Amino acid sequence: MSSPELSHFARTYAAFTADGRDEMVDREGVIKPHYRKVIEQALSLDSEERDERVRRARQYLSEAGVFHRVYAPSDASEETREWPLGHPALLIEPAEWKTLSRGLIQRARFLEKLLADIYGHRRLVTDGILPSALIGRNPEFCHALSDQAKTGEPLIRFIAIELGRGPDGRWWVLGDRTQAPSGAGFALENRVANTKAFPDFLRALNIERLAPFFQRFREMLYDLAGPDRSRVGLLSPGPHNETYFEHTYLARYLGLLLLEGGDLVVHNDEAMVRTVSGFQPIRVLWRRLDSDFADPLELFGGSQIGTPGLLQAVRAGKLKLINAIGSSILETPGFLAFQQRMANALLGTDLELPTIATWWCGQDAERAYVEANRKSLQLANAFPSEAVWSGAVGMPSGSDFEKVQESRNIDLMRDGIHWVGREIAALSTTPILVDGKLEPRPVTLRVFLTRDDEGWHLMPGGFARVADQQDARVISMRQGGSSIDVWVPSESRVERPERPLTLLAGTGSRFQRKLPGALPARAADNLYWLGRYVERCETATRLLRAYGARMDELTEPGEFETQLLDLIGFLGIEVTPARPGRALLAYAQQAFDTASRVRDRFSPDAWRALHETVDLILGSYNDDDVELVGLASSVLTHLSGFAGLVHENMYQFTGWRFMQIGRSLERGFNTASAIASVIEPDKLADGALETILDLTDSRVTYRRRYSVDLTRETVLDLSVLDPLNPRSIAFQVNRIQALLYDLPNQNTAETLDMLTRRIARLAVRLQTADASELDHAFVVRVANDLGDISSLLTARYLLSSPGKVTASGSPE
């Protein structure tokens, strides 16, 4: 591209920017050197190719199921949205990144020492540097952490720091994230999406890679765990958390057990995972759960997502948490008012990165200053757990300051210790593609650091948030903002091998086949019910298709329509021929919601197949013109695709077995229940036998297997007793028996013996039965036996896991 064309583009874009505060153009409207190459490459693409590349990145994120949740405080509702990736990336030149890296690592060291002092000798308080009220009145102060601080081990090992570029051109610290910092997984997915859409850009600019940072972080976790590397997990609040996708993604990427509070028990001061094989010790947990909810025994007693006794396991030295409970105190906005004095005391020098100016209203002079300058300041809570506004975003300022004071009855004289005044951040802008054109938008940068025995290390990139409007105070993913990748060009050549760098062992490592890790009982329960829900959705779909086909064939349905509706009714389906999607949505949604709880165990292809099934049904939910048979056939195709991907691609160990048991048990139970409703001669209406064959997908098999017209005996023989028909009840029972044989076996568990005997007796009964002898009572008994087998399996593996659990939460 010629220089005049590039200059014209720069002048056009610069007309929209704030003077001198844009990442791409300088005060004279000239493109900065480190942006020049990427803009030249972007402008060399025609609009169609550029749009196609953006579409490719978004398609990857959609197919990978990258999403975030948005909550409405007014009605506590939640909405799942696709991940809003913007373009182009935020570029930071190497020389500036070196300076920034030095300041960030210094800040991480400062935060580490500050936390150790708060929970240790508290010299900052005794020396009058930090007001005691900011600790003593701080709801994030955790007394239980004092004992851990005495060990001298680092209390924080993974942190995030929020940055914004000020009018002076320097990066300013807006806040610290030490509780359970999010965004690293999303940053990684942003990079993967851009790698698929703009690989030539990354190569041409020699952009630093992110995988080595995660590799270092994982090695640190494994080193803490000791010889048994399988005893490392990620502790998540669960699937309703707004960043749950990131938890599942990082657990899968790093090879960690994805755990929730209910997966753990503490016995003899040792944290253990409830697995289908028994209680297994866990040594290291990457905590993505807020401190207050981690241990209802010592912290918030109303927590339903924590583990009683977790803090005691930490105090006993048998469990390490990343980060320590109580580390969230470092997020206290009131600390920002005293940072330089604290840094001088702890490090012997000033902090290299400036902090946004903050005045704590717990002091007379500072409170008076805030009151006098309310039109130019933002009002914020001094303590993190009291925060109503997140970070530097959306806090009241100017005229809003007085409105909020009045509406919330805030008296700074009386309640000053709870409030701070903060300088209004004048953030820089970055170019973002809006309707095919680049426009400037305010941007903040979140960077991530991890600590190992060698010290602190910075991710060469990060997670940038971009506002959807020019107001620099409104940068929120919840309010329409987007995220962009962060690119740091390297001064040395970045090797880009044929295959991406993974976290697997390198070629120099000795080959060793590892056994799969323990399967938590919760995950087993979800996989079991996922199998059942998917099969239940398939059964409902087949019955609806059979209903639609029969109704199309018969001019006067009469009794048969009533019988078909009764047959469908055992599943609780209310048929609305005009809108069949409504009858299927509940089952598809149950399957999808259950799969989301064990998402780390599925490939992106399998997840996409299930997601597309729900989308297909949702698309027809309010469609009056949709055709029942056509919709049902399409849904069956998608469900079959999911089943095939799981069967062919999912590792066939314990989790896979539970899912297959659930599917076989549901199929056998549904078939038995359906047959029981039509098996008596006086209920055998015209077309009932064809419907049974449709339900069991056995029409082709029947024609090959039997040379006679449809009869009651032949249909029952094929659908109930034939051990070679993958749709028959006998086949399901034999398969369940084989799968149960390979499940973890504890000979001391009497329930397991009952389960084995019950399935064996049912298998023998089906093997020795004759089709001519089958009656209503026989098939009902089979259905009841399958229900009992489900109850025994649940009691043995899924409810309280092996062994009994006492009221205190400890295994006997």
UniProtKB/TrEMBL annotation:
Pfam families: Alpha-E (PF04168), CP_ATPgrasp_2 (PF14403)
Listed name of the protein: Uncharacterized protein
Source taxon at top rank: Bacteria
Annotated DUF403 domain residues: 519-798
Residue ranges annotated for the Circularly permuted ATP-grasp type domain, each copy included: 90-467
Source organism of the structure: Fulvimarina pelagi HTCC2506
Signal peptide from the UniProt entry: none
Cross-referenced InterPro entries: ATP-dep_Glu-Cys_Ligase-2 (IPR051680), CP_ATPgrasp_2 (IPR025841), DUF403 (IPR007296)
